Amino acid sequence: MTERLDATEDALTLIGELAEKHGDLMFYQAGGCCEGTQPQCFEKGGYFPRMNDAMIGLINGYEFWIDRDLFEYWQFAHFTLDVVDGFGPGGFSLETPLGKTFKVHYRLFSETELADLSSVKRSI
User: Fold this and answer.
1) Which residues are registered as beta bridge partners of 90?
2) Helical H segments across 1-120, by residue range
3) Per its UniProt entry, which superkingdom is the organism in (predicted)?
């Protein structure tokens, strides 16, 4: 099964630090203007996905949701969550006070990967 989501070691390290401080987490990547499609990290339940948003996978057991319209655009791409130094556009994400921001690297799936692609969970 081809997974839709992965994370760099740097992202996994930061996620561990955030989980230690805040408990269970969740990620949401919106498709709007203000957050600039920046992935954001919240305490679990700190953000409610909209109807038909897509949960594309788990990172360390934490759900990664993306906006329904953004998913339609990026459904044929693999997401790799990374982290960089700097202040993201939203400022609401848990890593912001640490001077970090999450970032996603995209690549298109190969034909072989597309034939064995994992399904997504939709919010209701």
Assistant:
1) none
2) 9-22, 68-74, 111-115
3) Bacteria
Is the residue at 124 inside a domain? no
Q: By residue range, what is the domain housing residue 88?
A: 5-117
pLDDT of residue 34: 59
Mean residue pLDDT of the chain comes to 92
Q: What is the mean pLDDT of residues 41-45?
A: 95
The strand pair at 39-43 and 77-85 is best described as unpaired
Per the confidence metrics, is the pTM higher than 0.85?
yes
The single-letter DSSP state of residue 109 is: P
CATH at 109: 2.60.300
| Residue with tokens 């034939």, as numbered in its chain | 115
Cα gap 30→42, rounded to integer Å: 13
Strands 62-66 and 25-29: parallel
Give the DSSP letter string of 85-108.
ES--SS--STTGGGTEEEEEEEEE
